[in-house]
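Anyone? Bumping this.
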Amino acid sequence: MVTMSDIMENYPRSGIRVMFELANQYPDAIALTVGQPNFDTPDFIKEAAIQSLKDGLTGYVSNGGLPELRQAIADQYTKRFGRPFTQDNVMIAAGGMEALFLALVAYLNPGDEIIVPDPGYPNYLGQIALLRGKAVPVPLREECGFQLQPEDLEKAITPKTKAVFLNYPSNPTGAFMDKETLYKLAEVVKKHNIMVVSDEVYEHIVYDGRECFSMAQIPGMEKQVIITNSFSKTYAMTGWRLGYVVADAQLVKLMPQLQEALVSCIPGFIQMAAIAAIANGQEAIAQMVTHYARRRDIMADGLNQIPGFHCFRPQGAFYAFANIKSFGKTSLEFAQELLEKAGVVCVPGSAFGEMGEGYIRSSYANSDENLIEALRRMDTYIRSAY
Ligand SMILES: Cc1ncc(COP(=O)(O)O)c(C=O)c1O
């Protein structure tokens, strides 16, 4: 019998899976687990894809992506950052996931260390493991609004550090990064000459008049920050698998050859739909964000009214990360209890790293009715049991 690769045998297991599998046994439970918009892709985007299929765009296209889409993305960044971007700064990828992978392949040699947020998006760990790197968690503390602190970053850096992952607005915490802290982090990054992979897939989903500011906007950081982004959350296009990298042209130039060996190219008709999304998507984004903002209020206010819960008020993305330490249980035990006794599925914070212990994540990308009913069930159970 041929032995399996050590990656296959030791690949980090997802703590989110455990809850999914358990939840299958409770068909009436309300799932607050999904990390995707509860909206359908807007019709005009679908129609652009259909039209493109009818026009015959069904073959291979260039490895780096359609020039028109790369240019459309470059134009958005030129406008937003106030400095020129061209299609040479943009690489089209299979979702934010492949964009992250390309950013990692660009810098990671086996044994290199990559600093990852804790709590943070678990797939970072899987990708780093695939490339035989070492993930080094850096704590994000609730008392600091879950914003990475410069002194914590500095402590995590060693001579083997290649890069740090930033993810704001954040999954799972819903935190936003303020400009002042970002400038201080940039100082640390410059001092130690490491790369930053800035995962900005939730950049458009922000509340209370906030506007995302990227570390790549800080003068002097242009070559040191790789932005990864995606159409998944912004345009409710998770199933289309479309994302992109925005980075220094010298780096982006080498990415198409990696794509050749991975998936060759992203389907042309999907890229045509993305061009339509950029051209005409502003209103659709604004409408979805209005709904998310209302649901953020329902969720955060509702959780904070349950005795023993303390929920950080999400500033972006669509997750509420509630502190449940007062119950004295592990987050997995507590999530199981909520499932079995209250009929509500949340993700245990421990699925996002050691620092996530003592929290549960609830996605509010769900209908108002479901959120209100889920909160009612949790409130009733907690008041009767504790
Ligand atoms: C923080 C973060 N980064 C990246 C992704 C991946 O996005 P995509 O669906 O575009 O691959 C997700 C999806 O949940 C996410 O939460």
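Late reply, but here is one note on the structure posted above: The pocket of pyridoxal-5'-phosphate is lined by residues 35, 95-97, 121, 167, 171, 199, 201, 230, 232, 238, 243 (CB under 6 Å).
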